[in-house]
Amino acid sequence: MLRYLPDVEWARDRAATLPTRWQTNVLDAWAAEHPTDHYAANVTLREVTESLDAIRIPLDATDETICRAADELAKRCGGRAEIFHELGALRAAMARIVAGQGIEPPDTNYGDPQAVARMVCPLWWRRKLRRHHGRTVEAAAIRLGYVNKARDLYCSNETLTRRIQQNRRNAAAMEATIARNELGQEYTLAELAATGPGNKAIRRAELMTRIAGFERIARDMGHAGLFMTITCPSRFHKWRTVAGWKVIPNPSYDPDTDPAIAQQYLAKVWARIRAALARQGITLYGFRIAEPQHDGTPHWHFLVFHRPEDRQAVRDAVIKHALKESPNEPGAHAHRVDFKDIDWSKGSAAGYIAKYVAKNIDGYKVGEDLHGQPSMETSARVEAWAATWGIRQFQQVGGPPVGVWRELRRVRELPPGAPAHLVDAHRAVNKVAMLEGRTAQSVAWDHYCKAQGGVFCGRRALIKVSMLTPDTLGRYGDPATPRPIGVETVSMETVPVSWNPGTWMTRTVHWIVESSRHVWEIVTRGARALHGRVSIAEKAKPSQPWTCVNNCTERVPDGHESEADRGQDGLHEPVPPGESQRGAGFHPPVGLAGLAGTPG
User: Active-site residue 352, yes or no?
Assistant: First the structure.
C-alpha cells in the first residue's frame, strides 16, 4: 500500500534541488496558491521543478563540481571502448551519454575519429557543461521571475557571481602563463591581452573610431543618419512594465523562449530587412548594438547611414518585417520599432551612440543607466548576460571588412611599387603615418573605406586577408583552419613589351604582403626560474599541434577571409621545440615584414 506524503513535505522535497534563494521563492508561491486550489498549486510546482531537471548537475554547483563531472563523464565515454569495438557503434554509445546530460553530441560535420576524440576529452566536456549549466541556471532564474529591474537587473545574481569568478580564474591563469618569442622577449598572457581588443578600453576606442569614420563619410557624401531600435514581441518577455517602474507578470509570455532564442528571432528579422532593401538596391552602413532589456530579453539598436532618397523605403522595410509577428498586440506599433533621424546641426551621431557602446563594454563616463543603476556595475551584468547566452553585442553593418584593417596594422612597410589603393589603406590604419613630409590623419576609418573601393564595397573590397592553411591537425585530429598571413590585392599595370620596342601591354599583378608575426612558445612561471627551458609543449607533447607558419606567400583560394574579418585572433597552442609557429595575437614592435609582389 502506497503512503502519500503530506503536501507540505512533498513540496519541500520537490524544491530541495533548487538553490537556497530560489527554494524560498518557489515555496512562497506554492503556499500562496495552495489554500485556494491545492491541485493547481501542486501541478505548478511539479512542472517548475521538472523543467529544471534537464541538467544532471545541481543548479548551485560550483565550477570545481563541474570540472569533476567533466572528468568523470570523459572517463565514462572512454570506458565504452571496452564494450563497443566498431568505431560507429562506439560513437553512438558515447553520443547517448552526451545527450543524457542535455548536451548536443558532435554533429555529422565531424568524422567518427574526431567526434570520439572530443567525447573522451575532459576539456571538451568542461566547455560544454559550463555553457549548458550556465544557460540552464539563467533560464531557471528567468522562469522563476528573478530577472527584472525590481530584483536582478539583466541577469540573475547567480549568473553574475559565476561570471565574476570565471573572469578571476581566467585573469589568474593569464597572469601565471608566460609567452616567449623567438627574440627571447617574455610577456605574461595578461600583458599581451591588455594590448589588444580584449582590453575593454581599446575595444571601445576602436568601435568609436570606426563609427566616427562612417559618420565622416556620411557627412561628405550628404547621406542621412538614422538611429533605430527593434524589440521582440510580447511573448519573449516574462514581465510587463506599468506606470513606468512597476513590473507585473506578462500573460503572453512563452516559457519555451529565452534570450538566445530571442536573439535568433531578431537576427532573422534583420536578415529579411536587409534582403528587402537589397532587392531595391538600397545599402546601409553603420553599426548594430545588442543589449538586454531589464528582463534579459535582447533588443537591437542601430546607427545606420543611407542616401536621403531612401529614407521612407528603409522605414517601410523595417516596420513591415519587425511587426510581421503579432502586429496587433497592444503596444506593438508604439514600442516594437522606434526611429530617430540624426540632425547634423545638433551634434555628432557618434556622440549619440557613444553611451550605448560604453554601457555595453565598461560603463565609461555613462554615470547611471536608464534604471538608475551605476553603469560601471550594470556593464558587468551586461557582460555576464552576453557571455552566458552567446550574444554578439556589436556588429558592423555594411562597409569593408575589419579583418583587413587589423591585418594591415601588422604590416611594417609595403614593397616598392605597391598599388596606390594598398598604400592609401596602409596609411589609413597606421597610428602615425607620414605623407609628403606631413603627419597624416591617424587611424582614419573613412580613408580606409575609400581605399577599399568605397563604403558600399562590401565583399568586393579591393584588399583581402591572405590566408594559409597549415599542413597540421588540430587537437582532435581535424584539419587546421586557414590562418591569416598578411594581405593580398590585385592591380593592373602597364609595362613595355621587351620583344616589341615602343609598345606597351597591360598585365594583372597579384600582390601578397606578409604581416609581421613572431614565433611564440608558452612557458610556465616555474620554467622561467629554470632559465625558461621547459615548456608546456615539452610536457604535453601533442602529436600534431595546431599551428600557423608565416613563411609562405602561396596564393590561397578566395573566400577564406570571413574568420579573420570576425577578428578571431589569438595565441595558438604550444609547439614542440624545433617547429615553427606564428601567433596571431599581440605583436610587439620588433620583427620583420615579409614583402612580395608577384606577377600573375
Answer: yes
